[in-house]
Amino acid sequence: MRYARKGWQGTMKILIDTNVIIDYLVDRTPFADHAEQVLQLCESGKAEGLVTASAVTDIYYIVRKATGREKTLEAIRTLCSVLDIADVGRADILEAMGLDMPDYEDALAAQCAKRIKADCVVTRNIADFDNSPVPAIQPVKFLKQFQ
User: Fold this and answer.
1) Is the pLDDT of residue 8 over 50?
2) Which of 130, 131, 145, 129 is CA-nearest to residue 16?
3) CA-based max dimension of the chain
4) Helix (H, G, I), strand (E, B) or coil at 147
5) Domains of the chain: which residue ranges?
6) Order of strands across the sheet with 12-16?
7) What is the CATH class of 12-138?
8) How do residues 69-91 score in pLDDT, each as one tens digit?
9) Distance CA 13, CA 53 (A)
10) Burial bucket for residue 44 (CB in 10 Å: 0-12, 13-18, 19+)
11) Rounded Cα gap, residues 94 and 97, in angstroms
């Protein structure tokens, strides 16, 4: 695993899972604070954050139910100013099918993380990434690397 040592000052490339973004955007307690701190690290340049293009539609669908269309679109605009978008192509879709992971959406995220050479996937659902080609880490543990 290529996790940074405590106090590490380099830039890590991280793929942020859908659940972490939604935690922040709909203020899901107790997870929203850690999600916000992860995004702040990306905004400050201490981490290079990415989200998959396919996750953006899921984020829109879920957040719109909680906040409405206009607030959701503004949130996605802001998100796009802080995070890069990892495209999802045919090869990713096919490669994800071959991963031994129970949830195809997570497999697709893991495959994208592998292709973009992410250091880790930041997610609350690390068990879903047990067989991921890229290690998964919970937001709170990820944040400890920057203290």
Assistant:
1) no
2) 129
3) 41
4) coil
5) 12-138
6) 84-86, 47-52, 12-16, 120-122, 136-137
7) alpha beta
8) 999 999 999 999 999 999 999 99
9) 16
10) exposed
11) 5
